[in-house]
Design goal:
- By secondary structure, this protein is mainly alpha-helical.
- The longest helix is centred in the middle third of the chain and has 25 residues.
- The N and C termini lie far apart (about 60 Å).
- The model has no long low-confidence stretch (mean pLDDT about 85).
Length: about 180
């Protein structure tokens, strides 16, 4: 029975990833989850109490995997500037990944304050990955620089997700340029 519940929960999470990927947070509804998994709508409530709970669990499951990919890309980079570039590029490469949609969905307004705080803390772990490299590059306040750098990455992610006029590769180059040279560099 426990294995069956685990498989059903995994199927619901996979369906949620697909829904988020195809239509954003608006597409993530319990009727849609039920339809995608073949469960009765009432059965979905046995696994999750709300859409926010689905998003929370997706973040708990997917964010560490996503962050590990960013960390692995940085580990392959030689030197602090290359680590910064890898940090930016890998996050932008992951925009099309279904797991990333769950991470983006964390900004959904229906999440309660506790859930948003947990997710912010996980996001802080991502920012922490780049602090050392920024310190090595001579930033006097590497933590602040890391937070601002993540703001550039987040803006580039939003631009790509909006289907901006620019090609995603152009957006990635601009973000890397800002990360490495600043606005006037």
């Amino acid at each position: 029975m426990a294995e069956h519940r685990s498989m059903q929960r995994a199927a619901l999470l996979d369906a949620a990833r697909t829904l988020l990927s195809e239509g954003g947070t608006e597409a993530l509804t319990f009727p849609a989850l039920a339809e995608r998994t073949g469960l009765a709508r009432s059965s979905v409530y046995e696994y999750f109490r709300s859409r926010a709970a689905v998003v929370e669990e997706l973040c708990e499951v997917d964010f560490p995997v996503w962050a590990a990919e960013v960390e692995a890309a940085m580990a392959c980079a030689d030197g602090p500037a290359a680590k910064v570039e890898a940090y930016v590029r890998k996050q932008l490469e992951l925009v099309g990944d279904r797991r990333h949609r769950a991470v983006v969905a964390i900004s959904a307004s229906e999440l309660d304050a506790g859930a948003r705080e947990e997710i912010r803390a996980a996001h802080g772990g991502l920012v922490a990955m780049i602090v050392e490299a920024l310190g090595e590059l001579g930033h006097e306040q590497p933590r602040l620089a890391a937070i601002l750098l993540q703001g550039v990455v987040d803006a580039a992610v939003r631009r790509i997700e909006l289907g901006a006029a620019e090609d995603p590769a152009v957006i990635a180059e601009a973000a890397v340029g800002m990360a490495l040279r600043g606005v006037c560099g």
